[in-house]
């Protein structure tokens, strides 16, 4: 049986236990730091994430979901892309130099693609409203109201509102803001002008009432004229009827008298007189006066 020579076995070099502990501690420390730094960031719905590398804004937005930011190097800020409203009170002048106060409320939202630009320039909506929206609204409202008289701002309200919204949309478009609504709550005039308007309305109502009264008077007068004309026409017709009736009566009487006259001969008349005579003679007669109911006819008849 052969025997191998004794060879000393050499073990691989081993890391000292202290170094292992240090390495494990370092790894654990890194994990703890990562845990404390929380590199995972969730972008909520209705928001857009803005990634910054040591303060330098990255142009690409982060959409809702879970994202990782390198601790101590990157940060993720969230910008709301939900509707926001900025209100302001504006004072301007009308075309007829009347002071007017109005309240404007602009509802808008930031485009998600423009979230990094918004964050870089404004950070928050208060700054945006103060630097951009309020001055734009003020200028646009004054530009529109200056084209109308005070009364037209009331009678042409829809047109004025549309023009104000159109100008505001154009003014905010460079900032990648989508304007959803522009509400003009009210146009308030000075007390003096309001009183003048009220007095004018009262005067117009009084004028309308006077015109109505005049129309009623004219209608009544016309009715009276019509009634009077009708009565006059009726009277004329009645008079003409009466005249025609009288004429007919007169004509008939004349014809009757003519027939009677034609039928009364002297002998007949003498006979009628004798029939009615009571036989008494006048006491006195003038010379040459014929005897009553006898006369020349009786004498002539006696002569025969």
Q: How is the secondary structure organized here?
A:
Blueprint (H helix, E strand, L loop, with lengths): L16 H21 L2 E4 L3 E7 L2 E2 L7 E4 L5 E7 L3 E10 L5 E12 L4 H7 L3 H21 L4 H6 L1 H16 L4 E13 L1 H73 L2 H11 L18 H9 L1
Antiparallel strand pairs: 1-4, 2-3, 2-5, 6-7, 7-8
Helix pairs in contact: 3-5
Q: Can you give a write-up of this model?
A:
The structure is a single chain. The chain is an alpha+beta fold and 304 residues long. Among the domains are: 34-80, no CATH class; 84-189, Tetrahydropterin Synthase, Chain A, CATH 3.30.479.30; 266-278 and 287-303, no CATH class. Helix content is 54%, strand content 19%. The protein has 8 helices and 8 strands; from the N terminus they run αβββββββααααβααα. The strands form 3 sheets. The chain has a 3-stranded antiparallel beta sheet. A 3-stranded antiparallel beta sheet has the order 6-7-8. It has a two-stranded antiparallel ribbon with strand order 1-4. α3 (125-145) packs across α5 (157-172). The longest helix is centred in the C-terminal third of the chain and has 73 residues, at 191-263. The termini are far apart. The relative contact order is 0.06.
Name the CATH superfamily classification of the domain at 84-189: Band 7 domain
Largest sheet, spatial ordering of strands = 3-2-5
How many whole angstroms does the radius of gyration measure?
63 Å
Uncertain spans, ≥5 residues at pLDDT below 50?
A: 297-304
């Amino acid at each position: 049986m052969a025997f191998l020579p004794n060879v000393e076995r050499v073990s691989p070099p081993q890391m000292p236990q202290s170094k292992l502990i240090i390495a494990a501690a370092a790894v654990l420390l890194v994990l703890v730091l990562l845990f404390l730094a929380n590199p995972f960031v969730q972008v909520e719905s209705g928001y857009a994430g803005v990634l910054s590398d040591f303060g330098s804004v990255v142009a690409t937005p982060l959409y809702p979901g879970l994202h990782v930011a390198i601790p101590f190097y990157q940060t993720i800020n969230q910008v709301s892309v939900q509707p926001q409203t900025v209100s302001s009170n504006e004072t301007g002048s009308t075309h007829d130099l009347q002071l007017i106060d109005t309240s404007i409320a602009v509802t808008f939202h930031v485009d998600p693609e423009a979230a990094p630009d918004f964050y870089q320039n404004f950070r928050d909506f208060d700054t945006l409203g103060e630097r951009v929206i309020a001055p734009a609204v003020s200028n646009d409202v004054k530009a529109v109201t200056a084209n109308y008289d005070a009364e037209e701002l009331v009678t042409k309200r829809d047109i004025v509102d549309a023009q104000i919204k159109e100008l505001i949309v154009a003014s905010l478009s460079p900032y990648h803001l989508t304007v959803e609504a522009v509400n003009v709550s009210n146009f308030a005039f000075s007390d003096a002008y309001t009183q003048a308007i009220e007095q004018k309305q009262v005067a117009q109502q009084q004028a309308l009432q006077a015109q109505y009264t005049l129309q009623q008077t004219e209608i009544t007068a016309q009715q009276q004229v019509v009634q009077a004309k009708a009565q006059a026409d009726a009277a004329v017709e009645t008079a003409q009827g009466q005249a025609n009736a009288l004429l007919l009566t007169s004509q008939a009487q004349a014809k009757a008298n003519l027939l009677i006259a034609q039928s009364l001969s002297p002998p007949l008349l003498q006979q009628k007189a004798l029939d009615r005579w009571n036989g008494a003679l006048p006491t006195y007669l003038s010379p040459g006066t014929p005897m009553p109911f006898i006369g020349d006819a009786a004498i002539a008849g006696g002569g025969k």
